[in-house]
Design goal:
alpha+beta; elongated
Length: about 170
């Protein structure tokens, strides 16, 4: 039985040459390089891209049976959105979120009874939170938005239900 190894190797000793199974030993430095390369690859994949996938399910009674506009914002902090009102947000979304907002919002219209999937929305390096905002005709309390910490949901699918005049995250 012969074995072919394409790698950096040590020459066989005299005793190994006389053996019917001549096998080359793999050099320890080569093994260390392979091991370190594997660790670097694992680290790079873990620190790689950050994204979220959203599945938005609207019930038949969502927004009193009317389509609802959903916006997904990336935020540096949750302070501004927690302090703003729906009225201020509707008048000027960018102004209401101020410096906390990163880039432009992803916008999607969802009709009653419809399920929409937004695949792998890439998250910016500075994004600490994602706000999902629903532009309902009438709102009750703070149910017009959901706030998700990026590190908790990073690279996952988040299922959101839009029912009546509120957003609910499923899976808790």
């Amino acid at each position: 039985m012969e074995m072919l190894i394409i790698a950096m190797y040590n020459q066989p000793t005299k005793q190994e040459e006389s053996s019917p199974m001549s096998v080359y030993r793999i050099h320890p430095r080569f093994m260390m390089m392979v091991f370190i390369g594997g660790l670097i690859g694992l680290w790079a994949s873990a620190c790689g891209s950050r994204h979220l996938t959203f599945q938005i399910q609207a019930t038949e009674t969502s927004n009193d049976g009317n389509p609802v506009v959903i916006r997904i914002h990336q935020l540096r902090s949750d302070a501004t959105i927690r302090a703003t009102t729906i009225e201020a947000y509707v008048r000027n979304p960018n102004g209401a979120l101020g410096e906390d907002q990163i880039g432009n919002a992803v916008e999607q219209v969802v009709r009653p009874g419809q399920t929409v999937t937004l695949e792998k929305i890439k998250l910016g390096k500075e994004a600490q939170f994602v706000a999902i905002v629903a532009d309902f005709y009438q709102t009750r309390g703070d149910n017009w938005y959901l706030l998700l910490p990026v590190e908790t949901y990073r690279n996952q699918q988040v299922i959101i239900k839009c029912e009546e005049q509120r957003l609910v995250r499923l899976g808790d």
